[in-house]
Amino acid sequence: TLWELIDDLHDESRALLCYGSPQGDLRLRYALAGSLAKRGLNVLPEEIIVTNGLTQGLALVTQTLARPGDRVLVEQPTYLGFLNLLRAQYLEPLGVPLDDEGPCIEELERLAIQYRPRFFYTIATYQNPTGKTVTAKRRRELLEWSERHGIVLIEDDIYGRLSYDGDPPAPIKTHDRSDTVIYLTSESKVLFPGLRVGSIVAPRPLHERLLALRRATDLCGSQLTQRLLATFLEQRGEQQHLRRVLPIYRRRRDTMLAALRQFMPKGVTWTKPAGGFCIWLTMPNAPTLHDLQQAALQQGVAIAPGEVFLTKATEYKHIRLAFSYEDEETIHRCVQILSQLLSERLRTEPYPVLTESWTPLV
Question: Which CATH number is 2-235 given?
Fold first, then answer.
């Protein structure tokens, strides 16, 4: 338990309440290197930078690679939090559409030649918001594209360990021989979001620049939190935790997919993720999503309209659903409610209306 872990650190309590290394606790970096090895990444502890969650890692990387006004590439759709981060840094995100295999290489080629972007951000495994996974062939093509144009790939692997149908694919970084991939992950989604511990594996030339920016922004992370996590990982706590929670998440995903098949009106389609937390609905035409969102909220159902995950709101026929939090009974009931609301609106409202600005939690 948490209290047992804290008791184990009693003799070190004074040191753990002081400032630590901006690179992160050494014991934790050794433990994280062991965890990354299970994903196929053979890295040394000195190659890892510990961050306050993956979001801080993304902020450090983007500030190091780009300046206000620069153009950068993201998947279309992509993680809303990253879009907000880019806009806060006055960077211009350009969307790359996804096909059945992953980001469209032809569009990446065009954008690379036309705009010379600073980097391309990808969630290659169990993407948020779509739940899609980039194929092995497309991963090789992405790496070849990155090497050909000298454009950095930022690989966000936050969901990579949350696999429900066999082993997850190896990260793109495992095949990186030219140091063009910056790899980020986090313990927050795997364990619990309040932990706020992430990590960066970056090419050596960027390492010192990232550490310098880390020192300038918040000096270091919490020594106490990092040592608690190190002890937890050393005691194989992560493996035990995953053995417990993965079947729960799998049942919740399966419950949502079964309810969608049972209740959704004709013409609505959805992704079938092999891991992660998200399912992406596509409607045959666009209902008034703001009205749908408000009607659903009144019945206790929260949805994320798809346009908030786009670089520009050009489509209004998608909804993101998340299945990680609620139990199966609640998921079944909520999908039934949403399906009824959608059925009513798809019959009567074929035209899109812009939604109000808002931020979903996941």
Answer: 3.40.640.10
